[in-house]
Amino acid sequence: MSQSFDVIVIGAGPGGYIAAIRAAQLGFKVACIDAWKNAAGGPAPGGTCTNVGCIPSKALLQSSEHFEHATHHFAEHGISTGKLAIDVAQMVARKDAVVKQNNDGILYLFKKNKVSFFHGQGSFARAIEGGYEIQVAGETRQTLVGRHIIVATGSSPRALPGVPFDEDLVLSNTGALALQAVPARLALIGSGVIGLEMGSVWRRLGAEVTILEGLPTFLGAVDEQIAREAKKAFDKQGLKIELGVKVGEVKTVRKGRSASVVVNYTDAKGQAQSLQADKLIVSIGRVPHTEGLNAQAVGLQLDERGAVVVDAECRTNLPGVWAVGDVVRGPMLAHKAEEEGVAVAERIAGQHGHVDFNLIPWVIYTSPEIAWVGRTEQQLKAEGVAYRAGSFPFLANGRARALGDTTGMVKMLADATTDEILGVHIVGPMASELIAEAVVAMAFRASSEDIARICHAHPSLSESTKEAALAVDKRTLNF
Ligand code: FAD
Ligand code: NAI
What we know:
By secondary structure, the protein is α/β, with parallel strands linked by helices.
């Protein structure tokens, strides 16, 4: 006999597992199905984010930053270390342990919230009266019946045409997070978020890193002034980024025990170039993942990229079927997926969950970190919005000086008439944490004057946000 549920969630990434927990909190009988396997073949809920995304990348960024500090910055603090060594296998093992803590944490949360977890591939079998039959292919095959289905099947890395990932020489994010030694020469294609974060990890650990980027502009979605400042810092670190290239043939060369990758490309001046590397990371974006879902069995509408088509409230073309996270339109971010998961569970309960895309913060966890929320200066110009801008450099912030990390600035954009904050853009230390204040301010539709009038602790990096707000009115106190 099949088990029946009010809500069945397919996928236990940040979109799916959060939707399942919220639906259970709201009193529904909930199942969550996830196919991800750990090294032993057991369940590993948490999706891309937990297993091969947000969490492991931040673990390696932390380890490599410690190494960078020990190598280049301890001496100025009067700390001598002697000769340093890196044990990459230990670094990766620590990262794996952090991932496992998160997998186990989600299994615990499912138990606590009485979410029934099924380990296996979930797929649509057929529509029935008042719901859908969902098959789970795990160690055994079972059929579940759900009144509401939430598709949260995430995304997969996009490969270069004709260059499949072998996770040995040509790596996706999965291979990039599992290298057992530092490659002497590392090539990356795509200087987006993954390219910059992964390039930073392996550069800090000693690799010579070259990133080939197709677009002529660096980080086109970022505020231009912030992107320029970040590029300057990356150049100084020796992260080589070539813009405006056209990647041609990619060849893997194996001779006896040595192996390398050759990337042929045309540079921005139209010259033919060839880059030889020990490993290649391809980070050119991700594609929605709907393979194995058997969407056609029920007529679930997908677009030409394979994304599930949804309206602004994550409803699909089918009654009672919803979709959230990377598998639908919008930014591919864990917190966006989570917010959509919560909103859908609340809508199923007759509430009015809502996600404001303008208030979704972005963070790139490089050094310096880059974070922003709201509109960029170039967007405001293009939209013809009259605005005032204020910025404050970390160079003039006491805490940043004490930290020894004075690169970058906070920049605030406010409506010229109402003074409402329209965007905040940060490049610098702890930008990932500082951006939260800006999100809160914008969610409450604060003005730059509101931030300027709020008492910020001294000495703290957050004083730079207050000073940027003062700068909107051309009255910084410390610069
Ligand atoms: P996913 O996390 O992809 O989860 C989908 C789950 O569904 C997977 O477990 C998959 O196995 C399962 N699944 C798929 N099909 C089926 C099926 N038919 N049956 C059963 N299970 C199925 N975002 C951030 O916000 N911050 C970051 O710092 C960040 N860092 C990242 C670093 C890297 C290297 C990468 C690759 C991504 C990063 N992201 C980050 C993006 C983030 O990982 C995604 O936006 C997020 O994971 C999307 O969540 P999701 O729930 O939609 O999908
Ligand atoms: P991305 O979209 O951030 O960057 C891809 C880059 O590759 C772009 O700059 C693009 O112009 C370039 N590109 C595309 N095709 C190319 C080609 N053929 N040759 C050369 N360059 C090419 O995608 P990325 O870095 O793969 O990451 C995927 C997504 O994962 C991100 O968009 C983000 O949503 C998420 N992510 C988020 C993180 C965070 O929040 N800190 C960290 C890592 C990933």
